[in-house]
Fold this protein.
Amino acid sequence: MNRDAVLNFSPSGIYCPAGDFYIDPWRPVERALITHGHADHARKGHKYYLSTDIAAPVLKHRLGHITLETLRYSEIRQIGSARVSFHPAGHVPGSAQIRIKVGGEAWVISGDYKLEDDGLSTAFDPVSCHSFVTECTFGLPVFRWQSQAQVFQEINKWWANNAANGIVSVVGAYGLGKAQRLLCGLDLSIGKVLTHGAIEGTNRVMRAQGIVLPETEQITPETDRKGNGSTLILAPPSALQSTWERRFGDTSNAFASGWMGLRGVRRRRSVDRGFVISDHADWDGLNAAISATGAENIYVTHGYTDVFSKWLSSKGYHSEVVPSRFTGTSVDDEEVE
Amino acid sequence: MKRFAALITQLEETTKTLQKTKAIAAYLQSVPDQDRLWCVTLFSGRRPKRVITSRQMREWASAASGWPLWLLEDSYAVVGDLGETIALVLPSPETEIEKSLSEWINDLRALASLDVEKKRNFILASWNSLGGPERFVFNKLITSGFRVGVSQKLMARAVAQVAKKTETEIAHRLMGNWHPDETTWYDLIEAEDLRVDLSRPYPFFLSSALESSPQSLGAPSDWGAEWKWDGIRGQVIIRGGSCFTWSRGEELVTQKFPEFEKFPDFLPDGTVLDGEILVWQDEHPLPFNKLQTRIGRKSVSKSILENAPVILYAYDLLEWRGEDIREQPYQERRKLLEDILSSTSPSLPLRLSPSIAFSDWISLAKTRSKARKNYAEGLILKKMNSLYEVGRKKGPWWKWKLDPFNIDAVMIYAQAGHGRRANLYTDFTFAVWQGSELVPLTKAYSGLTDAEFREISGWVRRNTLQRFGPVRQVTPEHVFEIAFEGIHESQRHKSGVALRFPRMARWRHDKKPHEANTIGDLKDLLKTYG
């Protein structure tokens, strides 16, 4: 079977010759299929974009004027001789795995995904295929997540404890997806949630498209900074420990990311608390997802690719690493998590 | 052990020293003496004798988790801590056992006399009965010391609060050769007489880097100056007819420097000298790489003693005739030291590190510029009336080092860090030109900001030419300014030179690879300064 008939890995990204399009390309191309709106997947400069309808508002918000068509989950579109459909990836609202069928051969590109239903994104749906291109950001057995209910309990306990001591809580979280997921898990009886402008921008876009988010208040120059200690602030990771954070007086800060499962990374971030919550699949999740596709050929990208590919080979899969130069220009894997 | 594991968690959950001190003090107050003693033991870098090898831990963890050994090893390479890696990959415990910290330690130590099968059974049963944080602590008890961001100073402060004594006194009590089997909390911390341990050193007083101009220090007459040597800071103790040598890392290194054994024949009991251990030839020190041949060896051979003989270049006196004189001003300690050393025989491997006379800062700056010619790395400035304090305290002592050497080199290999730097590329190899070829010159790990490390990591991922295991060969595109303290000839390095303390001073975005330095430039440096 000549698998390259369906997709190949070119210097511009993953390419489908049968439909003459790219998936999440990182150099400007004619036609780009986008799995989701994170910066390392959705870039500027392509001529035509195709994404899910749910991902579209954020894409437009982030990329400005683009020529964008949308598909609903599972809707099939014929592009050249390729049959294309988008399927829920559970990563962030609107995120998709992309299935491409050419002749009798079906491939799925996972994009970023997680298996746990976060209550905000459309839950991950395994898609059967012959070849599966999977991310493996957390492809080591040291990464195993607790349920989000448990993590939210920890976060709320920390917040309540800070509130009782008059200390403002500041949580660093990525603006698209993680911030909204946290927001939905916070116990608003403890206090008010304030947001950094970078996060509120995305909140606004999501509310406008009908996604229900708890009430937040954007921080402006007029915001009463001393306020009261029961406040929790959601901010991008870059705002932690900056002069921006210091203006709020006595604070306790936390960072919410899968990387917080490692003590070393927690120490590097030197935040008070690290909450282990990720929008990527953990070790068990990756293995379960791969098994559910029924695929024999597994291409791994984004993450501990060498180790994970070796693991898959030892389990009897035909596995290869997608050459790293072609996986995208993620300047900082931490920032895209 | 729940309480101790909770303490470790608490220490990791705050970056504020006040809260850390409070947490340790609260723990010490709430547990029996035996646990207090072990807590202080562990936090001061001491550890129970190892009874399980790292290899055994890995193999048993592989069996207990079901993951192949290689996968465990690869995970360990990322996590950077074996105890943590194992705690993370094991399945959840099926039972629960609660023992105190000292009970666990004693159980582990009792394994020493058992056969491998019994050891294995004990470890597997323990893993299966400990929850996350306790399992991690248990593994750390087996593998190595605790690094939980608790400095000696911080711990001394916490113990001082509990014992109601001064921090300085506690810092001194915690120094030296004590072991929990041979002492008690009372003897170590509370007893009036702390002279039981003859070898007990004083905490070192450390200088800080002078970053402003010396004019900011005030009148030159208030200050003394000495050369700053590039050797091993050492404290030599003569008590009870014996000699003990401590390194600044608080390691008892008496056996590594047998040259000092004769000191008790020439100096009275109750003498403690602070100085630099240096390889010495023709009345001057040799470069640090000569000393390196002696570090890391337990005992020294005859040929090493001949090829790299050391002296103590003394610059301070901490105890004289059994009296702790650290509270006397520097100038008086110095005068006493000069008197004592003026009458010792030149055959003794002991010299007085000279003081440098100066009347104004400008002339001192001129002297400093001649440091390399004098085999020194710069100057140390000491306030005349300064006491010998504990640890690093800004103000009384400054090191005023020469500016480092700088060269521009091209990055050719990158390797991911681990532990604190997991998931970033932080370990780089740099090369310089030899004709049209790039020759590896040095590795460097430090000097960039976290943001720069993130940026270069992304670039490394996209510009990997080849992989050799964990090492990635990258496009030779980026030039970095490498700062270093010295240069020496080396047969082990392909370039023929070895750099002392290399680090990345700057990422030269403004330079192209062809603008980097050449081997010829380095050979010139070697000729002048090597």
Notes: Chain A touches chain B at residues 140-144, 259, 261-268, 270-273, 304, 306-307, 310-311, 314, 324-325, 327, 329-335 (CB under 8 Å). Residues 8-142+279-321 of chain A form a domain with the Metallo-beta-lactamase; Chain A fold (CATH 3.60.15.10). Chain A is about 25% helix and 25% strand. The mean pLDDT of chain A is 91.
